[in-house]
Amino acid sequence: MEESIAELRETFRTGTTKSVSWRKKQLRALLDLVNENEDSIFQALDQDLGKSRVESYRDEIGIIKKSASYSLSCLDKWMAPKKGELPLLFFPAKAEVMPEPLGVVLIFSSWNFPITVALDPLIGAISAGNTVLLKPSELAPACMSFLTQTIPRYLDNKAIKVIGGGADVGSPRVGRLVLTAAAKYLTPVTLELGGKCPAIVDNTLSNPSKAKVTAKRIVGGKWGPCTGQACIAIDYVLVEEKLASTLIETVKKYIKIFYGDNLKELKSISRIVNQLQFQRLVNLLKDPHVAASVVYGGSVDEEKLVIEPTILLDPPLDSEIMNEEIFGPLLPIITLKNIEESIEFINSKPNPLVIYAFTENETFKKRILSETSSGSVTFNDSMVQFLCDSLPFGGVGQSGFGRYHGKYSFDTFSHEKSVLHRAFYPELEPRYPPWTNFKLAFLKLAYALDYFGLILLMSGFRKS
Amino acid sequence: MILSQKHPDSHALNTPQKLTLPHRHYRRRRSYRPKKSQNNVNHVMASEEEKKSVFDVESAKEVVKELRASFAAGKTKSYEWRSTQLNAMLKMMEENEPQIVAALRDDLSKPELESSIYEVAMVKSSCRVALKKLKHWIMPEKAKTSLITFPSSAEIVSEPLGVVLVISAWNYPFLLSLDPVIGAIAAGNAVVLKPSEIAPATSLLLARLAADYLDRSCIKVVEGAVPETSALLEQKWDKILYTGNGRVARIVMAAAAKHLTPVVLELGGKCPVIVDSDINLQVATRRIIAGKWGCNNGQACISPDYIITTKSYAQKLVDSFKCELERFYGKNPFESKDLSRIVNSNHFARLSKLLDEDKVSGKIVHGGERDEANLRIAPTILLDVPQDSLIMTEEIFGPLLPIIQVDKLEDSFDVINSSGTKPLAAYLFTNNKKLKEKFVATVSAGGLVVNDTTVHLAEHTLPFGGVGDSGMGAYHGKFSFDTFSHKKAVLYRGFACDAFVRYPPYSRGKLRLLEALFNGSFFSIIRALLGWFKS
């Protein structure tokens, strides 16, 4: 590995990765990689996680294609220096902020979206002109193998390397380890973690057509992406007591339509990644009080690593399922007397990556925005914020720090260097010692940008 | 000690088991006595002469608890609170300038003009910028949405991070304490400020003034040295901004890592100055002097550290320096009131060691005089010190200026890049357009200035921060506000136009339509829809 890193440093030093043509060439090559190997990617995702083609396209291939194309189309603009405004005092001078690559960067990706979470940051790192070492997760071995073998065939080997292996990344525990290691070298870090992402549902449920859409989006947003094994999957739902049964019935209906009536007939849904995660999820249901709160589903197939979509109603708040990030197909529904209590409920837990809120009440929306803290907030939908290139994707507090997607990826992997160009004339004598009261007065006025005061001072109408 | 023998993280970090911060042995002096006597109960002191209470981990926990409660109560979030605090800070600086200047003179023998301008005026200017722009900064930013999420609208909302810690440095103790605090307040956070114990008079004054002028339930100053800093670092903060050196920065970041706390590190490095020959030499020399000895006598993170020029020009440059130095500081610089002293005996010894190294001591071409009793070293220029000497490998942070000679000026870029570390700033004096372009393109540093030194610090529209070993993150102006904010993405969707293509059961038709949607072209969407209707 040291050799690989040394080679990456050397390549960066030669300046190859800085040119816009190199960056565009790599991005186009990445597009070719995805276009020409769609079937292999579908197969690998099916093998690792049981993802269907539509899910794989929607959550992985499509995202990468969109991201690479978007970066290609914006790259010239992103690379251009940003002009800074300068006060008259500096005249004549020019200020700009120039993005430059950081150098050699490391990307750890996770197993649940093994293509997206590997290649999307890679797109950002390449766009910003860095050399990259990519470590895909070994917990998605087919995808890891695909990336390890295919990337060298398409991308510049001297600048982009893939190394297999890597622990389960994405949790706060591993985040701490990474950050501690980075501290030794003063390496800046972006941590994309997770958390318990809540979905608040208010009385829009009273409207049947909105209730339908809400239920579809909750079901689609919970079990659609990797059967709930997603950092932005809905972890639990908050609803008023009196609307709970409406919600549960509608959600059940759509579970059956989307995924089938029971465990044996399950379709269009991924599986649990491995035995360890499977056991972890099964154990969440072992607590008798938790098991007693299951109102739908709960069946498991250990051999196929499948757990059917499961709904729980008011499991105990001190149970593990309500304190650990679930990261699986179990959906607790917590009832409240009044939906406004959801704010306090959410604030009693660490900041999540995203808060979902199904409501049309503008006051409530404002309260949610100002009184809770999360990476992002999405109103009346789930998951789709991930598709917006203009929105920063990242966490806060325990859900992480730093952000990417779109230009934020480019910025995250860049150093914004400020550049000030000055001329030799005019010269401001008061800058230099020996100090006098006049010079002090002059500089005070200058710093306050009090041009009129300066004129008065210099023309003798103002005492120093 | 943060990294004592027993500290659990010390082995993990592979750092020296015993940490000594470089400024530990500061000279004992009479404590600064504030003009008004105050019964201060809201700041905690741990000076050697007056140990009223020990600030330990429990105390730190209490402080954070109180601030978290204030933050949770929403005290710091309103525009009114933020602007009241910023106005109070402005008033604080306006009404106490003489005391501030006196404290800086006590701690650093800082000339009045440097104190008034680089500390007081800059803090005031920073307050004014924040006050003027705050409403605009607080407003959410609209974000575009695309066809994929149609219909929708999006925005990015700035929210405070919560409770933040600012650890400041001794060389610009007011500026480097209050400038970050201004950003933290503007962004709506509760703040703890830990000023440097190496500048005890200013630390005490800051604590007193903050308690008198600012909201004590949300903004606190904790004085002290390593034990107090360690106690603070054990707590969970929502962000830490540290100004200082790389060694302590690693400790701060490792402590922050335990709580997943993001950090901004404002460090330093060896800031090079490349000097071309076809320039206005007098102006260039003066600007280098202003940035070097005019900034706390070289004890500034962005002071020119060393110069690179051509062999043919070096002597001219040295002569110009001699001339201008005398013009500014007189024949005997020890008599000039316009130079700060070296902060303490520890640093004095460190700088003396740089000069006394065998391969360096014979290279002094100007200055070199020392007065240990008064902690003074004359402006000193050295010519052609070896690249592997201490003075060329460590950040100087003092009034010594080595000049390195190269055959042609283009070689200077290799000299800078071969050091393996990126400085906080780099400077170039030239009229050659190509050289300017190459400089900007190849030299990586926090910030660059062409034909001047250090002035970029005063420009609030430029982000001020380092890269690599010179630090991470940036602040000043809106960058301060952004650094202490979480930029929350918000997507608004409606219930209408629910895209069936998202939901199972999945089919080939849905796959094609999804592909078309991602593609973003209307034509392919229509084609997919037609194909859908056909099947």
From TrEMBL, chain A:
Give a Pfam family name. Answer: Aldedh
Quote the SUPFAM superfamilies the UniProt record gives.
ALDH-like
Q: Which Gene3D superfamilies match?
A: Aldehyde Dehydrogenase, Chain A, domain 1, Aldehyde Dehydrogenase, Chain A, domain 2
The answer on whether this UniProt entry bears the keyword Oxidoreductase reads yes
All copies of the Aldehyde dehydrogenase domain together span: 4-419
Task: Tell me which InterPro entries the record gives.
Answer: Ald_DH/histidinol_DH, Ald_DH_C, Ald_DH_N, Aldehyde_DH_dom, Aldehyde_DH_NAD(P)
- Keywords for this protein: Oxidoreductase
Source species, domain of life = Eukaryota
Provide the family line.
Answer: Belongs to the aldehyde dehydrogenase family.
User: Any idea what this protein is called?
Assistant: Aldehyde dehydrogenase
Annotated source species: Hibiscus sabdariffa (roselle)
Q: What is the lineage of its organism?
A: Eukaryota, Viridiplantae, Streptophyta, Embryophyta, Tracheophyta
UniProtKB/TrEMBL annotation, chain B:
Enumerate the residue ranges of region (Disordered). Answer: 1-20, 28-49
Keyword Oxidoreductase tagged: yes
- Positions the record marks as coiled coil are none
Q: Does the keyword Aminoacyl-tRNA synthetase apply?
A: no
Domain named Aldehyde dehydrogenase is located at: 53-490
Biased composition (Basic and acidic residues) is annotated at 1-10
InterPro entries with a match to the protein in the record? Ald_DH/histidinol_DH, Ald_DH_C, Ald_DH_N, Aldehyde_DH_dom, Aldehyde_DH_NAD(P)
Record-stated family? Belongs to the aldehyde dehydrogenase family.
Protein name, entry field: Aldehyde dehydrogenase
